[in-house]
């Protein structure tokens, strides 16, 4: 029998410590259990990671309290945490924070219980008549409970029958009713009802793909099936395949997780899932960042207790405590939002692939524009490639026209080209809808003085401030700094200050001038500050109350509006010129996804792409819906420059409010890393990051590349463990970095 436990103390630096087990729990405690342990003069919460027969640590202390003897983490999730710590070069404690939701870890929020009342026995008609005369309120409660034929909460009795606490107590005293506490669930969708939607009959292409998915789900239990990559054009019926695959998994008595990029942006997907499984006993749990602590707590327990067998959520849902997992789906697997941009900087899709291999379950990655990484894995045979090349019911792919902005006149402030204006006009007459897309919010992107050339910059970051006209303020899009927009140049006092560049607010403004009769709405992060704004606007758009929707990438993702026949991309070049090797890939993906919003109904769609660089490969390949062509060109570029997927890229950022100290620390780190650099690892010279200053800190970059991440991580960790930096210098390590700014 084990006598000791190795535990990981919450909010510690991630080192594990040994404690003695109280005799009473030695037989029942399991790894993954939660305990309270003495740490110096206080006690702290901790997770048991291992049970030991003996320990060589002298004088170990006794565990003070067992918070939950049952593991709140399965051995597999513990292992996943350890893997994240190794791979992403972070402490085990930091990794476990991602694996176990805060609300469960802290154990401060519990289940919610309410008092319910039910009839203790049948009440005779005569007795009831008497009661009606003497105590009508009490009689009302009896009537209500008889009608409900199930326990009713005391709150409801108070609301519906005007029954106070005294009324309920009187009935209890008479022995007519009984009250008892029962657990109630906080359900984020509690006030919505979902009508069951039957599965659709799949077309031959879908059927063929589904056969492969079925085979993966039905694989022999001792081996993990190959991950499946489903490349299906927008509107080809991928989601229908996910739904039916999950149905199959449920029939086999298993559970499923489906990851979506950002749940608040895909309300339609959640609705579709809730409706499809509305008639089954298997609840759909939804995990996302807008849940209250209580809701998150309850959804987690619903999953752990096996009451919810389907989980939909953003990246962290990959750690959902599902038992007997049969399938993981990663929708829009190429999305950057799967990468967590704070420690631990894990990639949800990659963790999904790893968890599936540990669980030996099927995994299906789907996208209309697969990431180069995943497609490369399919090409090299690590994944199995499945394809849907046509839209459902042979709906045509939208026709894409490129507009060369260099040839356009400067009328209308050159925001909308003549041809796009004509096209919008045409849709307005035909009562069809238009989406205008620009991936930049605000009104003008910078304020520049025509006399002295002064540009209004953020005092904390090395970027220009964006002018937001509605709020009459200048805002920093990096740190959120705000200032009143100046009337004169703050430098030379000249009134000739000029607003340049275009944001969504300006697009909205100029479209309103051009089409004064049209109903125009805007959707971007500024509008979204009100939580319901997004859903309200989408509903209004879907029901035809809006003619033109202007927005940022928020409207690019997975939305389905049958009446949208025109999409205008205001400036396709925005992402192309960033100092990032993924710029081309991102532009191709964004254009394809945005274009995919057009022509999803009966009328063919049309897309106008405005660009100053109309011949750039990403734009041209997107125009021809040519993923393969894009892939061939892009993968060659990556191979030549030794970029991912051919190497792993590790970005180290050294930050400090003191420029000198930051720069000096980056150089020291570089020198140490260079000593005994493992073979096959390259290391760049330290340099100021492209975004040199952010939130008041100066930032320096070091880049490492390798084909074998294990050796690199070990070396990096060894160096970082030995080095101490000045107090105000912060070092972050980003393995498989996505944000290179
Ligand atoms: P994707 O996820 O590839 O964008 P969806 O699954 O959302 O595609 O399908 C696009 C539209 O086609 C949806 O409205 C969906 O209900 C419909 N659809 C999908 N499969 C079928 C089918 N087999 N028969 C009829 N309609 C279908
Ligand atoms: Zn700033």
UniProtKB/TrEMBL annotation:
Protein name: Replication restart protein PriA
NCBIfam families assigned to the protein according to its UniProt record, in alphabetical order: priA (TIGR00595)
GO CC terms, sorted: primosome complex
Amino acids binding Zn(2+) 2: 458, 461, 476, 479
Catalysed conversion reaction: ATP + H2O = ADP + phosphate + H(+); Couples ATP hydrolysis with the unwinding of duplex DNA by translocating in the 3'-5' direction
Protein source organism: Chthoniobacter flavus Ellin428
Self-association state and partner proteins as the record states: Component of the replication restart primosome.
Zinc-finger among keywords: no
């Amino acid at each position: 029998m084990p006598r000791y436990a190795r535990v990981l103390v919450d909010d510690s630096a991630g080192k594990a410590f040994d404690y003695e087990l109280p005799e009473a729990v030695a037989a029942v405690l399991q790894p993954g259990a939660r305990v309270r342990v003495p740490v110096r003069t206080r006690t702290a919460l901790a997770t048991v990671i291992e049970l030991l027969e003996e320990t060589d640590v002298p004088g170990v202390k006794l565990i003070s309290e067992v918070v939950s003897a049952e593991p709140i983490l399965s051995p597999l999730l513990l292992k996943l945490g350890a893997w994240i710590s190794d791979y992403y070069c972070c402490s085990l404690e930091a990794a476990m924070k991602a694996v176990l939701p805060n609300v469960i870890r802290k154990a401060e929020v519990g289940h919610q219980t309410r008092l319910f009342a039910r009839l203790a026995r049948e009440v005779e008609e005569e007795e009831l008549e008497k009661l009606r005369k003497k105590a009508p309120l009490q009689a009302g409660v009896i009537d209500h409970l008889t009608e409900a034929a199930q326990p009713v909460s005391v709150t409801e009795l108070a609301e519906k029958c005007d029954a106070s606490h005294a009324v309920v107590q009187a009935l209890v005293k008479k022995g007519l009713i009984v009250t008892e506490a029962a657990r109630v669930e906080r359900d984020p969708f509690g006030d919505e009802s979902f009508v069951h939607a039957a599965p659709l009959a799949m077309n031959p292409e879908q059927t063929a793909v589904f056969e492969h998915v079925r085979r993966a789900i039905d694989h022999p239990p001792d081996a993990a099936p190959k991950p499946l990559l489903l490349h299906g054009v927008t509107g080809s019926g991928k989601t229908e395949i996910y739904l039916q695959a999950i149905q199959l998994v449920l029939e086999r008595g298993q559970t499923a997780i489906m990851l979506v990029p950002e749940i608040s942006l895909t309300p339609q997907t959640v609705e579709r899932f809730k409706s499809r499984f509305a008639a089954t006993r298997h609840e759909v749990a939804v995990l996302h960042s807008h849940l209250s602590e209580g809701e998150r707590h309850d959804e987690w327990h619903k999953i752990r207790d096996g009451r919810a067998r389907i989980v939909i959520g953003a990246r962290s849902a990959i750690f959902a405590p599902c038992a007997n997992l049969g399938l993981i789906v990663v929708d829009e697997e190429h999305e950057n939002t799967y990468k967590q941009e704070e420690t631990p900087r894990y990639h949800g899709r990659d963790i999904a692939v790893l968890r599936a291999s540990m669980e030996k379950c099927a995994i299906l990655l789907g996208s209309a524009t697969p990431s180069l990484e995943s497609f490369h894995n399919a090409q090299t045979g690590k994944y199995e490639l499945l394809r849907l090349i046509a839209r459902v019911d042979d709906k045509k792919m939208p026709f894409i026209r490129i507009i060369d902005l260099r040839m356009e006149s400067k009328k209308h402030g050159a925001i909308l080209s003549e041809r796009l204006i004509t096209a919008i006009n045409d849709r307005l007459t035909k009562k069809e809808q238009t989406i205008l897309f620009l991936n930049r919010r605000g009104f003008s992107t910078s304020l520049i003085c025509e006399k002295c050339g002064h540009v209004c910059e953020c005092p904390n970051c090395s970027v220009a401030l964006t002018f937001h006209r509605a709020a009459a303020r200048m805002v920093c899009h990096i740190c959120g700094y705000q200032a009143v927009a100046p009337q004169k140049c703050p430098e030379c006092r000249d009134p000739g200050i000029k607003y340049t560049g275009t944001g969504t607010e300006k697009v909205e403004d100029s479209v309103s001038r051009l089409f004064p009769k049209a109903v125009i709405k805007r959707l971007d992060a500024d509008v979204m500050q009100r939580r319901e704004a997004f859903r309200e606007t989408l509903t209004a758009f879907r029901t035809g109350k809006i003619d033109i929707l202007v927005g940022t990438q928020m409207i690019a993702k997975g939305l389905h509006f049958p009446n949208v026949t025109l999409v205008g991309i205001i400036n396709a070049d925005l992402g192309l010129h960033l100092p990032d090797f993924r710029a081309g890939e991102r532009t191709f993906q964004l254009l394809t996804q945005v274009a995919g919003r057009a022509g999803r109904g009966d009328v063919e769609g049309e897309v106008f792409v405005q660009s100053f660089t109309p011949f750039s490969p990403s734009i041209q390949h997107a125009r021809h819906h040519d993923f393969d062509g894009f892939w061939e060109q892009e993968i060659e570029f990556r191979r030549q420059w030794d970029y991912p997927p051919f190497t792993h890229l590790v970005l180290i950022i050294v930050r400090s409010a003191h420029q000198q100290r930051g720069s000096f620390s980056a150089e020291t780190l570089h020198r140490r890393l260079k000593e005994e650099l493992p073979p096959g690892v390259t290391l760049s010279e330290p340099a100021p990051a492209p975004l040199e200053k952010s939130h008041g800190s100066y930032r320096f970059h070091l880049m490492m590349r390798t084909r074998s991440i294990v050796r690199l991580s070990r070396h990096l960790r060894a160096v970082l463990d030995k080095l101490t930096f000045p107090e105000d210098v912060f070092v972050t390590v980003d393995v498989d970095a996505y944000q290179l700014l």
